[in-house]
């Protein structure tokens, strides 16, 4: 736990990994973020405000999705921004994650904020 607290304090606003390979450092940073009290509190706020999936509007939401992925340019700085988080069901979250991974792999990105604002 000491390692977690020390890492979180030192890297809370740092977008650049400082140890190990870039991929491993980013994974560790994200993992520690998801364990943080601030994330757990933010997640509960989103789920309490929108208990139904914002994508399909049918299933109960158990996950909170970052519209701007953490690995993107503005993702880390918006990680707790309530305007950039949506409640989402497990199935829709899986599809969104797969889409983001394909975009990351093939270099194609879309404006998810614009897509969701125009979603009817």
What does this entry show, briefly?
The chain is mostly helical and 120 residues long. The protein has helices spanning 2-11, 22-35, 37-49, 90-106, 112-117; strands at residues 63-66, 85-88. The protein has five helices and two strands, in the order αααββαα.
Order the strands across the largest sheet as they lie in space.
Answer: 1-2
Overall structural class, as computed from helix and strand content, comes to mainly alpha
What share of the residues does DSSP label as strand, in percent? 5-15%
N-to-C SSE string, H for helix and E for strand: HHHEEHH
Commentary on this structure:
The chain has 120 residues and is mainly alpha-helical. The protein has two domains: 1-35, no CATH class; 37-120, no CATH class. It contains five helices and two strands, in the order H-H-H-E-E-H-H. The protein has helices at 2-11, 22-35, 37-49, 90-106, 112-117; strands at 63-66, 85-88. The chain has a two-stranded antiparallel sheet. The longest helix has 17 residues, at 90-106. The N and C termini lie far apart (44 Å). Residues 14-20 have low confidence and may be disordered.
Spell out the blueprint of helices and strands.
Layout: H1 2-11, H2 22-35, H3 37-49, E1 63-66, E2 85-88, H4 90-106, H5 112-117
Antiparallel strand pairs: 1-2
């Amino acid at each position: 736990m000491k390692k977690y607290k020390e890492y979180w304090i030192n890297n809370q606003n740092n977008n650049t990994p400082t140890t190990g390979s870039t991929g491993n450092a980013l994974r560790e940073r994200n993992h520690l973020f998801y364990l943080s009290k601030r994330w757990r509190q933010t997640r509960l706020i989103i789920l309490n405000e929108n208990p139904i999936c914002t994508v399909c509007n049918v299933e109960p939401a158990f996950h909170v999705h970052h519209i701007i992925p953490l690995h993107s340019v503005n993702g880390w700085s918006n990680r707790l921004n309530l305007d950039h988080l949506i409640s989402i069901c497990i199935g829709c979250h899986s599809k969104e994650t797969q889409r983001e991974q394909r975009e990351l792999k093939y270099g194609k990105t879309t404006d998810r904020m614009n897509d969701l604002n125009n979603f009817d």
